Amino acid sequence: MNPNLSLLQPYPFQRLRDLFKGVTPNPSYSAINLSIGEPKHATPQLIKDALVNNLAGLASYPTTIGSLALREAISNWISRRYAVPNLNPETAILPVTGSREALFAFAQLIIDSTTTNPTAAKPVVISPNPFYQIYEGAAFLAGAEPYFLNTLPDEDPTHNHVMDFESVPVDVLKRTQLAYVCSPGNPSGKVMSLVQWQTIFELSDKYGFVIAADECYSEIYFDEANPPLGALQAAHKLGRDYKNLVIFSSLSKRSNVPGMRSGFVAGDEKIIEKFALYRTYHGCAMNPAVQAASATAWNDEAHVIENRRLYAEKFYIVTPLLIDILEVEKPDAAFYLWAKIKQSNGRSMTDTEFALALYRDFNVTVLPGSYLAREAHDVNPGLNFVRLALVASLDECVEAAKRIQQL
């Protein structure tokens, strides 16, 4: 067995199941689950129709690089969305079976852990903290060491809940081969600014590490006139090419098709070329019918605008119900409320106590923030936060907020 498997920690939802083990929720209340970031809005009919109408494709093996029609649809979408020149669909774009598997596989491609010196320090993968757990697992199984960059509330709003790369020690940067950046962030919903991207790019230039920009929440935001800044867009604005930069995007949240497992990677053509080679052996080509449905999804924005409207309605109604009870504000983007538990009358609950009491007494499930983070630099930055995924219906989200008020 790969000895690095022993480094993997239980997934947050397994820890949540363990927390609730033996606990029966109050049967007076219907169950409301706000713990998992799984879209619940209806899948658009045009995507389902495209899937059904292309089932004949199941008779053929798909290619790793995917159909040209899909790659062109993705290239056109990137250009429209981020106001950048079209990427070459032949060399700069690769369809993937969901951003999750691609984010994991990418570290296996990038990390060079070979050395003739058995005492040499391991290569480093920089990760936000709290973070999407795939980053850590990918680092460990690639033979690297995660370096957690805490994203904490700060008096300086330019640093609040965002990765501060300037705080990373030089000796760590010298060993860094890969940096995962999630913007809009999970769980905070914060968006990286152009100045922050410039800092990351300059450090990448100086130390040679690759940037994996996880943008799976990029299409859930609240102002149609001001979509979140993307990594390729930031590079273009700064007059840069895409050297050592790859973005990861997905239809799961944008188009409410998490079961299709459809996304893409795009950026540095030299890296995309090697990633295509890796994936040829990895064996994860996208189903041909899913490719056709994905092209349809990337070519349509009307359903995405309606999806954003549904989320915005929930945030505008639910956030005010919680603002006097939890330290919480509407995020820049994404569908999470990242809420800190307040002290009340000199009493306070930990995030796990809060989640357990809410489940036991009111049958509402939320995720303790400490489960999404690791203790680093003498603090667990998720401690005493909870993540609420506003993915359920509006009525359920409002009812959950009222139950939190009761708690």
Description:
- With 407 residues, the protein is an alpha/beta fold.
- The protein folds into two domains: 3-42 and 303-406, Alpha-Beta Complex (Aspartate Aminotransferase, domain 1), CATH 3.90.1150; 46-300, 3-Layer(aba) Sandwich (Aspartate Aminotransferase, domain 2), CATH 3.40.640.10.
- It is built from 14 helices and 13 strands.
- Helix 2 (45-53) runs antiparallel to helix 11, helix 3 (68-82) runs parallel beside helix 11 and helix 7 (194-207) crosses helix 8 (231-237).
- The longest helix is centred in the last third of the chain and has 21 residues, at 302-322.
Proportion of residues in extended strands: 5-15%
What general form does the structure show? Answer: globular
- Counted up, domains total 2
Overall pLDDT level: 95
Q: What is the top-level CATH class of the largest domain?
A: Alpha Beta
CATH topology of the largest domain: Aspartate Aminotransferase, domain 2
Concise structural overview:
38% of the residues lie in helices and 14% in strands. It contains 14 helices and 13 strands.
Secondary-structure map with pairings?
Elements: H1 12-20, E1 32-33, H2 45-53, H3 68-82, E2 93-96, H4 99-110, E3 124-129, H5 134-141, E4 145-150, H6 170-175, E5 176-182, H7 194-207, E6 210-214, H8 231-237, E7 245-250, H9 251-255, E8 263-267, H10 269-282, H11 288-298, H12 302-322, E9 326-327, E10 336-341, H13 351-362, E11 364-365, E12 367-368, E13 385-389, H14 394-406
Parallel strand pairs: 1-11, 3-4, 3-5, 5-6, 6-7
Antiparallel strand pairs: 2-8, 7-8, 9-10, 10-13, 12-13
Helix pairs in contact: 2-11, 3-11, 4-5, 7-8, 12-14
